[in-house]
Every structure is written in C-alpha cells, then in structure tokens.
Amino acid sequence: VQLQASGGGSVQTGDLLRLSCAASDPRFKDYAVGWFRQAPGKEREGVACISPGGSVTYYRNSVEGRFTISRDIRSNTVYLQMNSLEPEDTAVYYCNARDTTGINYWGQGTQVTVSS
C-alpha cells in the first residue's frame, strides 16, 4: 500500500492547514489510519487516528479540539484538518495505515512549519 501525504506548508500562529493522505489500494478503506509527527530532535509521536469505518477517532491531548481527522471512502483519502496552529505543531507529519494483519505502511511525510 502506497500512501501519499500532502498539504503541509509554512503558516503563522492561528492559521489552518489540511493534510491529506491518499492511497491507491482500495483495501485502504479497511485499515485504521493515523497521523504522526516528528519535530527536530524529538521522537515521532501519534497525533490522531481513525478507525476503518471512520466512527472512532483519537487525538493526543495537545491537539484535541483543534485538529480533526476524517476519511473519504470514495476518494480513498484520510484528512487531518488542523486549526489554530501553534509553533509547537511544527514537525514533519506522516500518515500511517495498519492493515488487518497488523502490518504498518507509512507515507513520505509533509513538513508543517508554524511561526509566531
């Protein structure tokens, strides 16, 4: 499964961005998908994830209420809407898909830079 992450950019504090994670494999709809991020000098951390059907979502505390993860079955894409961005959100963002056997697939990462 190949994942294509996009939508990053350089913004100001309080701005918004929407990240996209697109997959060509139709089985993607059956996989749980998560967004992770890694800031310079820090470990990769989970940001949000969504169940295969989209009914269950999870957010790390620091983004709860600002970020929204969603998925569009028709386009085979998972989105991360990021509002009220803060400098602490600066990182490379990666999407991850876990298939039904537990194998993880990673996208190539997209840079998000938030300046104050």
Question: Which keywords apply here?
Answer:
116 residues; mainly beta; 7-stranded mixed β-sheet; 4-stranded antiparallel β-sheet; 0% helix
Give a written overview of the molecule.
With 116 residues, this protein is an all-beta fold. It is 0% helix and 52% strand. It contains no helices and 11 strands. The strands form 2 sheets. Strands 2, 4, 5, 6, 9, 10 and 11 form a 7-stranded mixed sheet that branches. It is globular, with a radius of gyration of 13 Å. The termini are far apart. The mean pLDDT is 96.
Quick description:
0% of the residues lie in helices and 52% in strands. It is mainly beta.
Which secondary structure elements does this structure contain, and how are they paired or packed?
Layout: E1 3-6, E2 9-12, E3 17-23, E4 32-38, E5 45-50, E6 57-59, E7 67-72, E8 77-82, E9 91-98, E10 104-106, E11 110-115
Parallel strand pairs: 2-11
Antiparallel strand pairs: 1-3, 3-8, 4-5, 4-9, 5-6, 7-8, 9-10, 9-11
Helix tally equals 0
Shape: globular
Instruction: List low-pLDDT spans.
Output: none
Backbone CA Rg: 13 Å
Structural class: mainly beta
Terminal CA distance: 37 Å
Secondary structure: helix percent: under 10%
Number of strands: 11
Beta fraction of the residues?
over 45%
Give a short account of the largest sheet: 7 strands, mixed
